[in-house]
């Protein structure tokens, strides 16, 4: 009996080893790529991350609603990812989808929202630029140099009734360590809308002047 058990264990181990070997190739297709970072300052309610260079394919939307503008912008990006580009390239989904909210003190009519898709770093360099978007999508490639970003996490769905509250939470936590209180912010969403639970979102604030004392690039 014990021998039989040992045999089964051996067989099972061998089998799963084979399975693992077979899976080696397909796995990257299911890995969701995200930009790399290093945490350089950790607090209970936020952290400061140092990101490497990041390229985003970006859709500018003028609107009054975070949710609706993100949807509109993502719809244009979605078409780009599904072949509406000069090479008919199909892209895998990456994370996060980032919405940068630009509030202008001069405009009384809403905000500008820039909805962004993270481009795999293989498209980063000058020798292999990403396929050009179809002109009617009105997308633009944005390249960020290496920079520090203050990050606060929150769950649930990012929506009009919570993003500003989360932004205020981060601004208030930041204020205890770094001077300043007027910032643009971005909302990073990591999960597709078909996941109702276990969702991960973040508020990002960058260009905080006090960050240089943490060793951040200027
Ligand atoms: C968002 O879009 C929905 C559906 O089109 C609309 O009913 C709603 O009024 C919009 N919300 C805002 C704040 O614009
Ligand atoms: C897109 O197509 C052009 C022209 O055929 C080619 O030169 C370029 O390398 C392609 N780019 C990518 C990212 O495949
Ligand atoms: C927000 O971004 C806009 C556009 O880049 C800039 O003009 C403005 O000064 C920024 N506001 C703050 C508070 O940083
Ligand atoms: C949401 O995305 C985060 C970050 O990629 C991941 O850790 C988490 O498991 C995802 N949640 C669901 C429900 O897929």
Automatic annotation (TrEMBL):
Report the family membership: Belongs to the HEBP family.
Q: Where is the signal peptide?
A: 1-16
Q: Which domain of life is it from?
A: Eukaryota
Keywords on record: Signal
> Pfam families from the entry?
SOUL
Q: Give the matching PANTHER family.
A: HEME-BINDING PROTEIN-RELATED, SOUL HEME-BINDING PROTEIN
Designated name of the protein: SOUL heme-binding protein
């Amino acid at each position: 009996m014990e021998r039989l058990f040992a045999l089964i264990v051996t067989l099972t181990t061998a089998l799963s080893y084979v399975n693992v070997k077979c899976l080696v190739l397909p796995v990257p297709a299911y890995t969701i790529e995200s930009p790399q970072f290093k945490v350089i300052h950790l607090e209970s309610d936020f952290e400061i991350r140092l990101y490497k260079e990041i390229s985003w394919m970006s859709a500018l939307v003028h609107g009054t609603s975070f949710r609706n503008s993100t949807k509109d912008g993502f719809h244009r990006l979605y078409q780009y990812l599904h072949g509406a580009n000069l090479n008919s390239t199909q892209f895998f989904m990456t994370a996060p989808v980032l919405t940068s909210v630009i509030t202008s003190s001069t405009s009384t009519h809403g905000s500008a929202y820039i909805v962004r898709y993270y481009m795999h770093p293989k498209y980063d360099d000058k020798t292999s630029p990403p396929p050009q978007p179809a002109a009617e999508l009105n997308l633009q490639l944005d390249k960020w140099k290496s920079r520090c970003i203050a990050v606060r996490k929150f769950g649930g769905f990012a929506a009009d009734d919570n993003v500003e509250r989360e932004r205020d939470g981060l601004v208030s936590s930041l204020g205890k360590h770094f001077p300043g209180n007027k910032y643009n912010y971005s909302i990073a969403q990591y999960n597709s809308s078909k996941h109702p639970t276990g969702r991960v979102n973040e508020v990002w604030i960058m260009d905080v002047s006090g960050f240089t004392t943490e060793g951040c690039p200027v």
